Amino acid sequence: MGLKFSIPYQIPFYETDITHHVKLPHLLAFSLQVSGMQSESLGNTDKDVFDNYGLVWIVTDYAIEIDRLPRYNEKVTITTEAISYNKIFCYRNFYITDEAGQQIMLFKTTFALMDYETRKVAEVPDEVVAPYGADKIKKLLRGPRYKTLENPLEILYRVRYFDLDMNGHVNNSKYLEWMLDVFDLDFLTEYTPAHIDLKYVKEIHHGSKIYSGYEFDQGSLSSQHQICVDGNVHAQAIIQWKEIGDE
Amino acid sequence: MGLKFSIPYQIPFYETDITHHVKLPHLLAFSLQVSGMQSESLGNTDKDVFDNYGLVWIVTDYAIEIDRLPRYNEKVTITTEAISYNKIFCYRNFYITDEAGQQIMLFKTTFALMDYETRKVAEVPDEVVAPYGADKIKKLLRGPRYKTLENPLEILYRVRYFDLDMNGHVNNSKYLEWMLDVFDLDFLTEYTPAHIDLKYVKEIHHGSKIYSGYEFDQGSLSSQHQICVDGNVHAQAIIQWKEIGDE
């Protein structure tokens, strides 16, 4: 277990959806910001890592547990903690707690370092992660097995200019937008994710045509998703849904 | 001139674009958040206005002056000031200043109050705006004259779930995304808006097909824009561009 770092956050108007809850892709994006703030507080900024090693942090996997999504204007605390790391991957948790200190969401994330020039994953230099105090482990933690979808329903998306971030590719919070947007408005106002497993396979660039495909199983209230470009899978997810009233 | 209210803001990673500058639609959305925070600090929240009058604040016009867009991680201050109001409109400025206190952007905005049930603009109750200390004026401030475009280039957009906000319609920052996204990547990495006039005409709902149309004049480096649904204009803009290197 490593150092913890917390930031208070009040859910802004423009990041809430029609159900008055926070937009989940925004909360993922903001959480990465919080880990960046921890790095800054430890004098170990992303810029240092880039300047010294030519490496940039990327997220490869999320396992997201949602008891409930925070609502408009609600004050929550986002706490991040570096859990452990091995030769390739760094495991980091984000805990979202409400004003009473009750945990309402948990994001388990896997980070890796990408060589900015070659766009390939690099070994983790011990000294880059030393400031976070996490344990080095031998084990590779495995996510779920994602199957390739056989008869997905697919919706076409074009990459928009504002989908891109500073790294020159689509920001990873956008993948989840494409995955959730395939459902109709009635479904998204009645159901909310209870658990999401999400795996990033390949980056996506401007001008790409994205097929956001999914299969939904009404019996188990679960859906499987894939984001494809030119027939290649760039991201996969499994979502377990629940009724919003259940929270 | 009315009360001023300031919030410091550091530009987050996920709201910067490929040129490393802040995404302008995000900064507009965040500024509205700052005026909401001022209302809260004065004990005059949006919720109070809704509960007591059934009214919600909407923005009808922007005049945006950009010396330069703030960059990733830059610390700026956003100051809002209620300037004046008349029977229908409230005029409010937002000043973005850099760490040296230099003003780098100015948003002149026009707000109105919409009856949530009838979706029509309502008269401004004096007591709703009294806390901001702005002068009541008789004059209606006029924006530029927008012409209907005769032969626009048009790109089709579908409204996505996450384009909607808590008011159940498309968040107004999205209109600007559709207007700017029509340009190609090369143009958007070489040129940046110096001045934008933007007028909202009608709200947009989920399921709508949006045509973002524009005409660009290379000689004057200016573009005119309209957002249409079913042949009706829902928003219009005029943008004056400059080379990014000029800033």
From TrEMBL, chains A, B:
Instruction: Tell me yes or no: is rRNA-binding among this UniProt entry's keywords.
Output: no
Every Acyl-ACP thioesterase N-terminal hotdog domain range:
3-132
The record's InterPro entries line, in alphabetical order, gives: Acyl-ACP_TE_C, Acyl-ACP_thioesterase_NHD, FATA/B, HotDog_dom_sf
CDD domains cross-referenced by the UniProt entry: 4HBT
Key words of the record? Fatty acid biosynthesis, Fatty acid metabolism, Hydrolase, Lipid biosynthesis, Lipid metabolism, Transit peptide
Residue span(s) of domain Acyl-ACP thioesterase-like C-terminal: 147-243
Q: Which domain of life is it from?
A: Bacteria
The GO terms describing molecular function are: acyl carrier activity; fatty acyl-[ACP] hydrolase activity
Q: Which family does it belong to?
A: Belongs to the acyl-ACP thioesterase family.
What is this protein's name? Answer: Acyl-ACP thioesterase, putative
Origin organism is Streptococcus thermophilus (strain ATCC BAA-250 / LMG 18311)
